[in-house]
Amino acid sequence: MTERHDILPLVPADIDTYRQPVVYMREDCHVCRSEGFGTQSRIEIEVEGKRIIATLNVITGGDWLPQETAALSNTAWEALALQPGAVGRFSHPEPPVSASAIRTKVYGGRLDDAACRAIISDTIQRRLSDLDLAAFVTSCAGDRLDEAETIALTLAMRDAGVRLDWGRGPVLDKHCVGGLPGNRTTPIVVAIVAAAGHLIPKTSSRAITSPAGTADTMEVMAPVALDQAAMRGVVEAEGGCIVWGGGLDLSPADDMLIRIERPLDFDSEGQMVASILSKKAAAGSSHVLIDMPIGPTAKVRSYAAAKALSDRLQAVARALGQTISVNRSDGSAPVGRGIGPALEAYDVLAVLRRSPQAPADLRERALDVAGALLELVGTNGRQLAGELLDGGKAEAKFMAICAAQGGFTEPGEAPQMQPVNADRAGRITAIDNRRIAKIAKLAGAPGRKTSGVLLRTRVGDTVEIGQPLFEVHAETQGELAWALDFTASRDSPFRVEDAP
After folding, report:
1. What per-residue confidence (pLDDT) applies to 378?
2. What CA–CA distances, in Å, run from 325 to 314, 322, 362, 375?
3. Are 184 and 307 in contact (CB under 8 A)?
4. CA distance 373 to 404
5. Are 301 and 349 contained in the same domain?
6. What is the DSSP letter of 171?
7. For the Pyrimidine nucleoside phosphorylase C-terminal domain, which residue ranges apply (predicted)?
8. Does the annotation count 267 as an active-site position?
9. What is the distance between the alpha carbons of residues 64 and 87, in angstroms, rounded to a whole number?
10. Does residue 80 form part of some domain?
């Protein structure tokens, strides 16, 4: 079988490369030699008429892979739907159609509709390498996408995947642009809106650069990795859901771009708008509330930036035929007490259960967002939202949604906890959102579900020397030490000034 220069038996490598197909070959493999393949080469693999393009990693030592065999990462193996004994044919792929469009954008050119559709198509078909995608993301960073380009990119992303149709409307949705730790209003808002009798099929993401995304927090209370049929069943039964959008094939290119954006740790205003609204449109949403926290250490740092982003969102929404409203909120400090999946889930449950210890700021924000969303469909929203929350109907609806998604579980608790104390007396005048989020991530969040930071004080509180400001929660001693070492080596995220 291996007498041909372009054929090799295939085996699973059992390596998770997260959506990026990777092929492994030994450097002395005859296909590598005859085809001139080297590390990071892009290779087309064909098996019984199915084709993918994968990135080559060359094995230079060890004996885990036989010489005349190729191993495929989990993503590559699943994309080809292979069975044991499969044989693949290897060749150099044709250059992706969109490569010239990306190059044009890198050098300051504009993207038209055809270019955007080519880039998104090649992204989904995995014809673009991570380097290609990084070049595209970088070329769009900041404000380098104009309004027309943003609309073209949003439409291309929306049309590239599944589009849900709920058969009736209106279909409500909400999104927070992020940057504010602990601002976990979504589960509360979904419960309120669904209890009011409206459709709110909420798809949420996992964390990109934060200590928790909505899907991460919801997952400690109920399953979120539902397929389309299961999601539809939950919505038909309860009017709403809170599920992870990554497995639903809604705007699938967005998940691939997010994978590149995460390590680069920057945002493009145009790509942010395209990401938000393409997924809302694909999910069938007709009325969307955008929560936009504004603060010096939030994602949106000024009212001028908020206006520019709001204008872009409104323009793209009009092109999609959506009705949206932007709720500009205070982003100067974290919300609630918990930062991290389980810790944020405790705050959510405290609000829904009307606990006396529930964080008042999270409750008020959730009511503001739910009220504004309900007002989009002509309801006296804030009053109704308060009645549904205070009367227990929102809690009952949330528990019904959890049951429909697979069952409710109380959040867990981290085995390692240590307070960080004030080193001076005075009044807390500010908390740095980015720095406190960094500490939570070093403690293990969001991957370690019970890890994160629990705030013991808030802006405006007066503290004494030695009083706990916050607690670091971790699942391992090493992660606890890592977070505490970082905290000790930097200025405190809490600004404490002399009390007046």
Report:
1. 86
2. 8, 10, 20, 10
3. no
4. 24
5. yes
6. B
7. 427-489
8. yes
9. 19
10. yes
**pLDDT number for residue 178:** 83
Please tell me the pTM assigned to this model.
0.88
Residue 161 falls inside a structural domain:
no
Co-location of 424 and 400 in the same domain: no
22-26 and 468-474 as β-strands: parallel, antiparallel, unpaired?
unpaired
Q: Which of 122, 132, 255, 267 is catalytic?
A: 267
Burial class (CB in 10 A: 0-12, 13-18, 19+), 352: buried
CA distance 212 to 440: 9
Predicted pLDDT at 2: 41
Residues of the chain with pLDDT under 70: 1-4, 266-267
Q: Which of 405, 424, 443 is the last residue of a domain?
A: 405
Question: Could you tell me the CATH number of the domain that includes residue 316?
Answer: 3.40.1030.10
Contact 367, 382 (CB under 8 A): yes
Q: Directed axis angle between helix 393-405 and helix 381-390, to 10°? A: 80
Q: How far apart are CA 426 and CA 461, in angstroms?
A: 8
What tens digit of pLDDT does each residue of 23-34 get?
999 999 999 888
Domain boundary among 405, 433, 456: 405
Domain, as residue range, for 432: 416-497
For residue 25, the cross-strand partners are 58
Q: Give 315's contacts (C-beta < 8 A, 6+ positions apart).
A: 147, 150, 151
> Do 352 and 491 fall within a single domain?
no
